[in-house]
Amino acid sequence: MTRLFLFLISYGLVVISATQIIFYLNYRSLGYEWHQVFYFIIRTGDFALLVVSGIILAITVAYRGPSRSPFFEE
Question: Which of 7, 20, 6, 9 is nearest to 48 (CA)?
């Protein structure tokens, strides 16, 4: 249950923060250079949230759970 909760929360945070970063790319249409836009994106909290939630998502998906069948009775 904890794995499912972590997966759903981290997936939601990845989607939200990636959407915000895509919105930040619109600064290019306002006349800013690419390096200025990327420097701004890297300094925002959304980028840090994207990295952290992406790492949590990868760990959640890659982690092997207990090796027992769902119908195992103790």
Answer: 20
